[in-house]
Design goal:
The complex is a heterodimer of chains A (585) and B (538).
Chain A lengths: L2 E2 L33 E11 L4 E5 L10 H14 L1 H4 L13 E7 L16 E6 L2 E6 L2 H14 L1 E2 L5 E10 L5 E7 L7 H13 L4 E5 L15 H6 L10 H13 L3 E8 L4 H6 L4 E6 L2 E9 L4 H17 L4 E5 L6 H5 L1 H10 L5 H18 L3 E5 L1 H5 L8 E4 L4 H13 L3 E4 L14 H5 L10 H5 L1 E8 L9 H5 L2 H10 L8 H18 L14 H10 L4 H8 L5 H10 L10 H6 L1
Parallel strand pairs in A: 3-4, 4-6, 9-10, 9-18, 10-11, 11-14, 14-15, 15-16, 16-17, 17-18
Antiparallel strand pairs in A: 1-3, 2-8, 5-6, 5-8, 7-8, 12-13
Helix pairs in contact in A: 1-3, 4-6, 8-11
Chain B lengths: L1 E5 L39 E11 L5 E4 L10 H15 L18 E2 L1 E6 L27 H13 L1 E2 L5 E9 L6 E7 L7 H13 L4 E5 L15 H6 L10 H12 L4 E8 L4 H6 L4 E6 L2 E9 L4 H17 L4 E5 L6 H5 L1 H9 L6 H17 L4 E5 H5 L9 E4 L5 H10 L3 E4 L14 H5 L10 H5 L1 E8 L9 H5 L2 H10 L7 H17 L20
Parallel strand pairs in B: 2-4, 3-5, 8-9, 8-17, 9-10, 10-13, 13-14, 14-15, 15-16, 16-17
Antiparallel strand pairs in B: 1-5, 2-7, 6-7, 11-12
Helix pairs in contact in B: 1-2, 3-5, 7-10
The chains are: A alpha/beta (585), B alpha/beta (538).
Chain lengths: 585, 538
């Protein structure tokens, strides 16, 4: 058995005479979000001591020390499980507890691969005295299990950490659980994307759908066509994703078991492409002369397909995922209609006046291009609606309509034998007053009439955060915890999670956990949000400070009683007052 | 009297630096075009911007007191504002090439901003009040409060080209606010707001020339105000007795931070409804509700029939009147639920004695009347929510009635002013209600004086407030939810009545929001586009 020594990293053991006192109230295993498929736990609990806590690989495990994904994950989850300890405070222990080991075994050594469409995420977790066994087929399943384990750990008075005796068998209901971010309508700094990937892992999302370019801007810096971003980005230097940025996102995502699915939407939604690639877009005409404006990609020129072939060749070498999203939505035909060359082409091809045929012609060519690159295409539902002749392994992405209409669409697409992905009910960029997460939670993705075979074609769902009104200033609070509601719908068993009122307190607690996870960087105007675990520490620490004597004057009890009071009166979720401020008063 | 602005300085040459940071691509809907007023927000009353442009260099530029100014270096309020605005304009002054060793200025440089406070009393150590004059004229202005306003305006005139060079056009501005009371309400009871969030919001208010922070500090859910006289109110009534409270030092800090930015802090202690959290720390303050003939164990509004209630209120508001220096206190008085009062036999008896019949609004008025007398004795003026007026409570003539109920708020404004009371408007500006899209336009299009009434009546409208109630808002989302939506209200309350061009507003507000982002405030976007300097605080 090889021991990965997360627990042995020697943190300075400050001689702090302070202890953390707090009580989380009743801890419940239902605190795990999204809810595991099967979970049993008992009141029997075991203390965890960060100084005697280890992640190890099981002797039968196919992956052993040196497995990048798991080694990194052990470090990450150690910090998440013991936030005070790893934040460098350290604390004094009376005695050395018995060690606790989380033994991880995986059936396959896929440490250096990327998660893919058929990667298993199933795991079993068994927590007993001194030991937890986490077994999974793949490292990706092990990551999900580690997340669950971290959510099982809680903290009580005197800063002790506990985990209850628990048995979990878990696997996702749907294989594809995605979040779409739109980096074209507003540029999102890489940091904002990475932070979203972190949060996705907390909710067990596994696909980052990167809607990287669109009409407003083209921030992807292409190796082959650098002019696309040089001329099409909001700013050619500061508002682009370099190859290095993209690699960073992909590798950060991989470490969290998240696929990165790039979307290069065409033939519509391509205004920004035209700036850096002349003759790519269709010149619109007013009467018999070009009007100077441009429409969708020009589908009649061979140069278009040559360009696309080269671009997608690059894309498929940069993005390792086996899927590429080709868009194909909302093509406005008026420009094509105005152009005499396009009309002549229509005639030649025998399309009559049906421009959907022209669109289908274009999409078919693009899908074939990506097929030749060994990639599965995803396209928006429009492609199916206009034209059913598309390769069978194409995935359709439903984005339109109210339940009745997307259910009909699900029925039609699966009946035609295509795999399908549901996004329509989760357009999370649409905001409204109140608890709209309830709407996202109560979606029933398989509630359409169809055979079992048809239902199996629904590979999952996706939360879309379109960017018209979203940038780095408001992305995070707009996305979380609303997206977590969809996460549970896509991971957990629908029967066990049908009661939205029961979900409410769990989601409330989970949100507080998210606040802890996001160690919000404390910048000039940032908002310091710290979890209670460190918080009380600071309260006790500052107690000897002059500033706190102020508080004493205000009628506070002495130190001992302060800490004791904390022990008895601590709500679950606390947002700290800025302790720097209160130190400096 | 603030005289600001003599931005004179020698220069003859002028290069009209002309630029437009926004890309020429524009999406279907809002079309961005540079406004002739650049990024000024809210729009000054009178602006003339010439083509003549001066360069600004961080190395040579200074903000100084004019010789004749009544405020000098000892006015720390001004000095810290100079520094703040210098930093806004030049950022953390990325080293400019050549500027390090070369502090000589070009003839076309603008090297000095002179600030002239013209009133004999600079009010440096005072608090802004409802009568502070914020107007500011070219070469002749009043009172210092405006001073900030003018500095803010000046900083907004500074623009940056793509090489980071700063410049300013020769400009004449004559400015004053349309309304005196331009407020933001934050609710620190439904969610606790860390001090830092409040301070950063005050900073942003100053950027938008908003001058009243209405601190809805306590409510049903929690009582975070740490009272010196009744510390048990927050000990028992706050979400947490140490971490989720505002200590006297915290409150002082907020008030001083606001003062330095020319912002009044008006606290609200809402009674007799909205007081569940008060009851936890103050026994017998709330009315025990009955079910049948027995107390049900739950409590209703403040108990209006006990003398102890008024003793408590007298002591409590005496403290409040010393802690908060502003001339006004907001006393609430909204949404009183009568069911608990009705259930209580003692109250029923009292109703009988007082000949109130079944009209519980009379009981409410009875309470409010006594409360107003108590507060009046502390020499403070007061604001109340509109129900207090609606219920016919006798009010002091200088009471400010706060109109918040939507639907027919114009009718209410008409009634309140007809009765001779000053009023502020919030009904159309409940910013906690969110919806998809550019709802700032809705807030922008409001005309506060759009109600039936004489000119005299209209003069009684002293302003308005944007309210951000806290059910769904805490430190995680407050700033992007409030800004720049509240900026729309800010311009409506500051600028002239005829400033209603929504396209021009879009163009200026887009830049104004980017300026807030550049100053570190996560103000959310209006629509697809970008800022030269995106938000870095991720």
């Amino acid at each position: 058995m090889s021991v990965v020594t997360s627990g042995r990293y020697t943190f300075p053991n400050y001689n702090l005479v302070f202890f953390i006192f707090l009580q989380l109230g009743l801890h419940s295993v239902e605190g795990v979000w999204p809810l595991p498929q099967s979970i049993t736990s008992s009141p029997e609990r075991y203390p965890l001591n960060p100084q005697a806590f280890y992640f190890t690989y099981g002797s039968q495990s196919a992956a052993q020390e040196g497995c990048s994904v798991l080694d990194e994950a052990f470090k990450r989850y150690f910090s998440l499980i013991f936030p005070d300890y790893s934040s460098g405070y350290g604390f004094l222990r009376f005695s050395v507890d018995k060690p606790f080991t989380v033994q991880v075994s995986v059936g396959r050594n896929d440490c250096d691969s990327y998660p893919d469409e058929d990667s298993s995420e199933q795991y079993t977790l068994s927590v007993s005295a001194g030991q937890a066994y986490l077994k999974a087929e793949t490292v990706w399943g092990a990551l999900r299990g580690l997340e669950t384990f971290s959510q099982l750990v809680y903290q009580e008075d005197f800063g002790s950490y506990y985990v209850n005796k628990t048995e979990i068998e878990d696997f996702p209901r749907f294989q594809f659980r995605g979040i779409l971010l739109d980096t074209s309508r507003h540029y999102l700094p890489v940091q904002a994307i990475l932070k979203t990937l972190d949060a996705m892992a907390f909710s067990k999302f596994n696909v980052f759908h990167w809607h990287i370019v669109d009409d407003p801007s083209f921030p992807y810096q292409s190796r082959t066509f650098p002019d696309l971003s040089a001329k099409g980005a909001f700013h050619p230097m500061t508002h682009i994703y370099t190859q290095l940025d993209v690699r960073r996102v992909i590798s950060y995502a991989r470490m969290r078991g998240i696929r990165v699915l790039p979307e290069f939407d065409s033939p519509g939604h391509t205004q920004s492409w035209g700036k850096g690639q002349s003759d790519l877009l269709t010149p619109c005409y007013s009467g018999s002369t070009p009007s100077g404006t441009f429409g969708p990609v020009n589908p009649i020129l061979p140069s278009t397909y040559k360009f696309m072939a080269t671009l997608f060749k690059e894309v498929s070498s940069v993005f390792p995922d086996s899927y590429i999203h080709l868009g194909g939505d909302e093509v406005n035909f008026s420009c094509w209609k105005s152009n005499p060359d396009v009309r002549a082409f229509m005639l030649k091809m025998g399309f009559g006046a049906d421009f959907t045929k022209l669109e289908a012609y274009y999409m078919e060519n693009i899908v074939n291009l990506t097929a030749a690159l060994n990639r599965t295409s995803i396209v928006w539902q429009d492609v199916f609606d206009y034209h059913e002749r598309i390769p069978k392994d194409t995935v359709l992405h439903i984005w339109k309509g109210v339940p009745a209409s997307y259910e009909a669409e699900l029925r039609a697409i699966t009946k035609a034998g295509y795999r399908v992905l549901l996004a329509a009910p989760w357009y999370i960029n649409h905001i409204s007053y109140g608890q709209d997460w309830r709407n996202y939670y109560t979606v029933q993705p398989l509630n359409f009439s169809g055979t079992e075979e048809q239902k199996k074609l629904v590979i999952g769902g996706e939360v879309c955060m379109w960017g018209e009104y979203v940038d780095a200033t408001n992305l995070t609070p707009r996305l979380w915890p609303r997206a977590s509601a969809a996460a549970e719908r896509l991971w957990s068993d629908e029967k066990q999670t049908s009661d939205v009122d029961k979900a409410f307190p769990r989601l409330k607690d989970f949100r507080c956990e998210l606040l802890r996870y996001f160690s919000f960087s404390d910048n000039a105007h940032g908002i310091p949000i710290t979890h209670h675990r460190t918080l009380f520490y600071e309260v006790c620490l500052t107690y000897t400070d002059a500033s706190v004597s102020l508080r004493l004057q205000a009628g506070y009890p002495g130190r001992a009683s302060l800490c004791r009071t904390l022990q008895t009166r601590v709500p679950r979720c606390l947002i700290i007052t800025d302790h720097v401020t209160f130190l400096s008063i | 009297m603030l005289k600001f602005v003599s931005l004179l300085l020698a220069l003859s040459c002028c290069q009209g630096l002309h630029h437009n940071n926004i890309d020429d691509y524009v999406e279907a809907e809002p079309v961005f075009q540079a406004s002739k007023y650049g990024s000024l927000w809210p729009l000054p009353q009178k602006v003339q911007i010439s083509e003549v442009s001066f360069k600004l260099s961080s190395a040579s530029f200074r903000i100084v007191d004019a010789k004749a100014s009544s405020a000098g270096p000892s006015c720390s309020l001004l000095q810290s504002a100079y520094r703040r605005y210098y930093e806004y304009m030049f950022g953390s002054a990325k080293k400019q090439w050549g500027s390090k060793n070369n502090r000589r200025s070009d003839p076309s440089d603008l090297t000095e901003l002179q600030v002239w406070i013209t009133s004999p009393d600079s009010e440096c150590d005072g608090y802004p009040s409802v009568t502070s004059d914020e107007s500011c004229e070219y070469l002749l202005f009043l009172v210092h409060v405006m001073f900030y306003r003018s500095l803010e305006t000046f900083s907004q005139l500074v623009s940056e080209d793509e090489y980071g060079a700063k410049s300013i056009n020769a400009t004449i501005i004559n400015d004053f606010p349309r309304f005196q009371h331009r407020g933001i309400l934050l609710d620190s009871s439904r969610h606790f707001l860390p001090i830092k969030v409040i301070l950063s919001n005050l900073e942003t208010m100053a950027m938008n020339k908003i001058n009243v922070f209405h601190w809805h500090i306590v409510d049903e859910q929690s009582f975070p105000y740490l009272s010196r006289t009744f510390p048990q109110l927050s000990e028992q009534g706050a979400y947490h007795p140490y971490t989720h409270v505002y200590t006297p030092a915290d409150v002082k800090m907020v008030i001083e931070f606001a003062r330095l930015r020319g912002i009044r802090v008006v606290p609200e202690f809402d009674t007799p409804g909205h007081t569940q959290s008060w009851g936890k720390g103050q026994k017998d303050l709330l009315t025990p509700c009955y079910s049948g003939s027995k107390p049900s164990g739950s409590f209703g509004p403040v108990n209006p029939i006990l003398n102890t209630t008024y003793d408590f209120m007298a002591k409590f508001f005496t403290e409040i009147s010393t802690v908060f220096p502003d001339g006004y206190i907001h006393l609430g008085g909204d949404e009183v639920d009568f069911t608990c009062w009705k259930s209580n036999p003692d109250i029923q008896k009292f109703m009988e004695q007082q000949h109130f019949g079944e009209d519980y609004s009379k009981l409410e008025s009875f309470y409010i009347q006594k409360l107003l007398d108590i507060v009046a004795s502390t020499k403070k003026g007061y604001l109340v929510w509109q129900e207090v007026f609606d219920n016919g409570v006798k009010l002091k003539p200088d009471t400010v009635v706060h109109v918040w109920i939507g639907g027919r708020s114009d009718k209410e404004m008409s009634n309140v002013t007809a009765a001779g009371y000053t009023t502020i408007l919030s009904a159309p500006w409940y910013l906690d209600y969110i919806s998809y899209g550019q709802d700032w336009q809705k807030y922008y299009k409001v005309e506060p004086l759009n109600f039936e009434g004489t000119d005299e009546q209209k003069k009684l409208v002293i302003g308005g407030e944007a309210c951000l109630w806290g059910e769904y808002v805490d430190a995680t989302n407050l700033t992007p939810r409030l800004w720049p939506r509240a900026s729309a209200v800010a311009e409506r309350l500051w600028s002239a009545k005829n400033v209603t061009d929504i396209d021009d507003a879009f163009n200026r507000l887009s830049l104004h929001r980017c300026r807030m982002v550049e100053r570190g405030i996560p103000a959310e976007p209006l629509f697809s586009s970008y800022c030269l300097h995106e938000y870095k605080g991720v």
